Amino acid sequence: MRVTLERSNLLKALNHVHRVVERRNTIPILANVLLKSDGSTLRLKATDLDLEVVETVAAEVSRAGGTTVPAHMLYDIVRKLPEGSEVSLEAQTDGRTLAVRSGRSEFSLQMLPEVDFPDLNAGEFRVAFTVTSGQLRDLIERTQFAISTEETRYYLNGIYLHLVTVGETKMLRAVATDGHRLAQAQIPAPEGLASMPGIIVPRKTVGEVQKLVDSGDAPVRVEVSETKIRLTFDGIVLTSKLIDGTFPDYAKVIPKNNDKVLKVGRGEFSEAVDRVSTIASERGRAVKLALGEGRLVLSVNNPDSGSATEEIGVDFSADPIEIGFNAKYLLDIGAQLRSDTAVFKLADAGSPTLIQDDGDASALFVLMPMRV
């Protein structure tokens, strides 16, 4: 194999694929990236056996072929080369090393055989549909913060994608929860989704997709099999195993009859929460919301360092109520709201609260209270 290509193109592709590779690997081949040249392209592939990313870039191919080399080391080498330079990759005749040359720099990397590199065999994809990169990114961004990191409840370690009917409209809905908060977002269902079962996309896959797709209108083809999902966009093919588990009936925790309605400026509220939570020794401490006619008093009391209060004007006319929330969770949800006004629907100090944008039903958030 011998190829030459622009450093910027190679760096961009390596940046996308090398993140999949775990830093510590008991299987040496999994620490490598597969390089395969053919025609006028170079294909790069990396996997951790659960997630696989393939990217194809334009290259000048003098001799077709394939090999594997350490992914993070190759990425670091290319990253440190001068901007605007060209990089040549050439497998040496000894069959054991790959020469990486650019200008006066030359590196020699140990190779492992291409035939040893695993392939994430995806099987037959029975469902296929297309969404825009912006739609996909929106679904992910508005829900991923609520994904559980508790490994024992592995079925919560991802985003649940499924088809629902709202009124007479079919929607593609994304849901994530960690038991303390729940995030739900949805878009109109694209063509081809009718037979898709509910699937749970793992947290690591969600994170990689979020980094790879932009917020534009570029098409993303999504294919789903019994056990895997594949996304194809912008010269990249990402294939991932799905979580084999049953997502809980999340609808049961979404409150339906919360009758105390609070409307507050989203930015003003988030800034106030951020300020008063400074006094807490850790972000997990509760911030108390004391609601009365037209006013909200936020307060934090930390026995070790002091206390803080702030009052803001709000639209609230129900009976007074005091309720506590995790300050970090409030800020996470506030960051996902889009309108100028946030709507809180409350019941009592011990029941979950529903949070939405004013006039926008495309996303909702549920937050469990804390004792204060």
Helix % is 10-25%
Shape: elongated
Stretches where pLDDT is under 50 for at least 5 consecutive residues are none
Mean pLDDT: 94
**How big a fraction of the residues is strand?**
35-45%
Number of strands: 25
Query: How are the strands of the largest sheet arranged?
Result: 6-2-3-4-17-16-15-10
What would you call the quaternary organization?
Answer: single chain
Largest sheet: 8 strands, antiparallel
Radius of gyration from the CA trace? 25 Å
Structural class: alpha+beta
End-to-end Cα distance, whole Å, is 66 Å
Count of individual helical segments: 6
The gist of it:
This protein has helices spanning 7-18, 71-80, 133-141, 203-212, 266-276, 327-336, and strands spanning 2-6, 32-38, 41-47, 51-58, 60-63, 65-70, 86-91, 97-102, 105-110, 127-132, 158-166, 169-177, 181-188, 199-202, 219-224, 228-233, 236-241, 260-265, 286-292, 295-302, 306-313, 321-326, 341-346, 353-357, 360-367. With 372 residues, it is an alpha+beta fold.
Describe this structure in words.
The protein has helices at 7-18, 71-80, 133-141, 203-212, 266-276, 327-336; strands spanning 2-6, 32-38, 41-47, 51-58, 60-63, 65-70, 86-91, 97-102, 105-110, 127-132, 158-166, 169-177, 181-188, 199-202, 219-224, 228-233, 236-241, 260-265, 286-292, 295-302, 306-313, 321-326, 341-346, 353-357, 360-367. The strands form four sheets. It has an eight-stranded antiparallel β-sheet. It is of the alpha+beta class. The radius of gyration is 25 Å and the shape is elongated. A hairpin with a 3-residue loop joins strand 20 and strand 21 (306-313). The mean pLDDT is 94.
